[in-house]
Task: structure prediction
Amino acid sequence: MSFLIRTDLHITTWVVAIVIFLIASFMGNKSKGLHMTLRLFYILIIITGLILFNEGRSYGMGMLYGFKFLGGILVIGMMEMVLVRQKKNKSTVMFWILFALFLFITLFLGFKLPMGQDFLA
Result:
C-alpha cells in the first residue's frame, strides 16, 4: 500500500477531476453522466487526500496539512455548487470566484508543503 502515500495518485485524481469539471460546466444541463463521474473522483480525491494528510502529520506540520485538506474540501464543494446551480439556472459567478480562490490557496499549500512538488521554490 506504499503506492498510496506518493503524491502522484492524488495529483492525477484532482487534475482529472478539474478537467471533467470544466467539461461538465461548459456542457450545461447535458452533463449528468460527467457529473456522476466527477462525484466518483471527489471520493478518490478525499481518500488519497486523507492518506496524504495522515502521512503529512509525521512531518510535524499537521495543522498546515489540515488547512490544505479543508481547502480541498472547499474546492470540491464549490465545484459541486457550480454544477448544481448551473442545472437550476441560477447565478454561479460567486461560486466560480470562490472556486478559483480556494483552488489557488489549496494548490499553493500543496506545492509549498514538504510532500508536494517544489514548483514554488
